[in-house]
Amino acid sequence: xxxxxxxxxxxxxxxxxxxxxxxxxxxxxxxxxxxxxxxxxxxxxxxxxxxxxxxxxxxxxxxxxxxxxxxxxxxxxxxxxxxxxxxxxxxxxxxxxxxxxxxxxxxxxxxxxxxxxxxxxxxxxxxxxxxxxxxxxxxxxxxxxxxxxxxxxxxxxxxxxxxxxxxxxxxxxxxxxxxxxxxxxxxxxxxxxxxxxxxxxxxxxxxxxxxxxxxxxxxxxxxxxxxxxxxxxxxxxxxxxxxxxxxxxxxxxxxxxxxxxxxxxxxxxxxxxxxxxxxxxxxxxxxxxxxxxxxxxxxxxxxxxxxxxxxxxxxxxxxxxxxxxxxxxxxxxxxxxxxxxxxxxxxxxxxxxxxxxxxxxxxxxxxxxxxxxxxxxxxxxxxxxxxxxxxxxxxxxxxxxxxxxxxxxxxxxxxxxxxxxxxxxxxxxxxxxxxxxxxxxxxxxxxxxxxxxxxxxxxxxxxxxxxxxxxxxxxxxxxxxxxxxxxxxxxxxxxxxxxxxxxxxxxxxxxxxxxxxxxxxxxxxxxxxxxxxxxxxxxxxxxxxxxxxxxxxxxxxxxxxxxxxxxxxxxxxxxxxxxxxxxxxxxxxxxxxxxxxxxxxxxxxxxxxxxxxxxxxxxxxxxxxxxxxxxxxxxxxxxxxxxxxxxxxxxxxxxxxxxxxxxxxxxxxxxxxxxxxxxxxxxxxxxxxxxxxxxxxxxxxxxxxxxxxxxxxxxxxxxxxxxxxxxxxxxxxxxxxxxxxxxxxxxxxxxxxxxxxxxxxxxxxxxxxxxxxxxxxxxxxxxxxxxxxxxxxxxxxxxxxxxxxxxxxxxxxxxxxxxxxxxxxxxxxxxxxxxxxxxxxxxxxxxxxxxxxxxxxxxxxxxxxxxxxxxxxxxxxxxxxxxxxxxxxxxxxxxxxxxxxxxxxxxxxxxxxxxxxxxxxxxxxxxxxxxxxxxxxxxxxxxxxxxxxxxxxxxxxxxxx
Length: 961
Known about the structure:
Layout (H helix, E strand, L loop, with lengths): L10 H16 L13 H17 L20 H13 L9 H6 L17 H10 L3 H10 L2 H18 L3 H22 L6 H11 L4 H4 L5 H25 L10 H4 L6 H41 L5 H6 L12 H16 L3 H4 L3 H9 L5 H7 L2 H8 L8 H12 L8 H9 L6 H30 L7 H24 L1 H14 L3 H11 L12 H10 L10 H10 L1 H14 L1 H13 L1 H15 L3 H6 L8 H13 L4 H25 L2 H39 L3 H15 L1 H6 L2 H14 L8 H24 L2 H9 L7 E2 L2 E2 L11 H8 L4 H13 L3 H16 L17 H23 L7 H9 L7 H6 L1 H7 L9 H17 L1
Antiparallel strand pairs: 1-2
């Protein structure tokens, strides 16, 4: 026994039973309605009573006068199905003598039988179904119900349709719905019971298919409309029937509600099984033939309508709705004809029908949904998206949005952007690409306009007066305002549409595609108040473990502010080695998005004194070196120009940092950058070696295996490119010119001496010595000359070279030499003092230096000061003299001690002891190593008194000899 909830006894059934019992007993017998005519008021009363019950249970909406009762949205349709079957089960039908027999085999509904005093006439049942909002369920019954019963109701509908529904337009959906139900019944039941004659009689009787019958509609406009509606609905049925041929139809869930058996269930299943085994193929052929026959009859009916369709009628169809969103009746019928012709090609028998050729003209007027969308104005399209033209499903809504995105004007319209934002959940990566492409196009157009404006201004030859200058200032202000307006125009589009689309993407590869395009819009700004706070929170909680790296969230931050986001990660990498590895790994993974940010990152890192002072000092942990290596790795496969460009960007960023810290005299930051600069050559040599090893290895593989030529060419190209890095760096004008300026700014005098300044100056001079010759040989002398003329210490240069480092046979003057030494680096001082020693003026030079120190201190009473007076000297001057004394000791050792014989040592000792300020503690300590060598002692700790004693001893010994 089947338990069907729709057929369970309920309050609706009980109330209808009470109403009908009351009506039967007090008004009119239920089985006395033999004809509709003469019983109109009584039937209306029954309709009213049933409607009241349905309204009470909120199954239907209350109708206005003249309207058809409609089902309430959200109604339990099974309840209505059960109600209709309850009425049908208690109605009259021809096989009443078999009532007890089939009731026996349908236990699912036996409890609903014989509940009324008498069975209800079928014409009343049909009227109740149509007037009480159950027409849809009635058509389901015609499709699913047993053919022996549904055939009776088809005939009853045929006899009484015009009594129930007088409007020919309202009758059309019922006629076509009945035809569609017959087609479904054939598929569902697959029996020889043929309902087609019943359905065709209904169609023939009630369709206004002749000029005479069509004249029943008095309005010519309405006649045009009726023909269109008849064509549309008949074509809909025909399409449905043709599509069901050769297709296995699945029974709907509600089928059992309407099914009634004339035999026991078990016997019926056995019969169906036996039939399936013996006659399955034959039954399928019969089923197919039935559907083909029905299609042919429908095509005949459509064909009979065609002579009545004039050109005037066809054109009027453009003004009538089709029941399909945004498609007028003419376009929809064209689409139906086109679709039907395509389906008929699969069935040879139907394709021979003469209607096929006639429908070709209609098919030419077919319009797709997309084509109709293209024809809508922008206002109509927005109304469509807002649902004002009809209810939309998601597919239609997406098609409308696609059309909106094809109209560039929409991106600058507040109303259009609002509509996009409203449905942003339906938008995908393709829509994001469209937005970015539009913004790129706008950017190109603006750049072109600016270039044209500049060209026009450049052609103006007349002198600009003061008034004109003021006008130009106003124009500049207007351009800035326009720039601001440009960003404001797309603010809402960016924040409410583009960004949500991007964040909704869950695929990192898709996000990277959009990021690569977004990078071209480097000036694109999202007006978000919390973006900086969100980025700070992200990096404050970031772990350096690559496996747990939140890539999706990181890419979301990159989309809003790519430069700042990559910089934030680089700032972590500057002070934490493990984050440096993470930065490299993520950067390579996101290379297309990562490359354009490198220049910005380098510019900021190399001008951030705080980070430069915090970052690790070993070269292996120098993140700035990692950036240089990363630049090479990402671009070594490109052409020569690209590789040179990225190196130039790196060196320009370094030069900018040197310029900033030279201005502020931040020696620590300068030293940090210069240490990185001096390591670049080591990095380049390492890459040159590894690239040639890879090339040789690949060449061996090619010789051995005979393949891989493309890889060999690439390896050779990479090796040749990397070899050029050192030359490009040495000849880089931006870097070299800044080093010269920094060198000039770091030169001082005795009174302004700082050890940290000299250390930085030494690093610059060291790099200069290693790389300047290549620069000088590759650069124009005019550029160097112009630069040198701007220097404060331009007298230190000769023939575009550092004069102090040149070999010169010209005699030095002690006073001039002393002045030069006060401005020298360590290397220059040693070179200058070595030359002084060779020219035997070193003692005079040192005396000049000592005198200069005394002048700074204000004490010029003696060329050398006593140790007790040393503390009164200005510290800077004393430190300066100590620095130069150290250089003198180095030069003294290199020039005099190393090549000398032991017999010359006493003279050298005497020479050394005559050096001014030797007996000062710091200076004496600097002279220890030289004195130890000259005194032939290996003692590690030699004090001042000991040195005096040894010196006096050796001098007296020599005098005795």
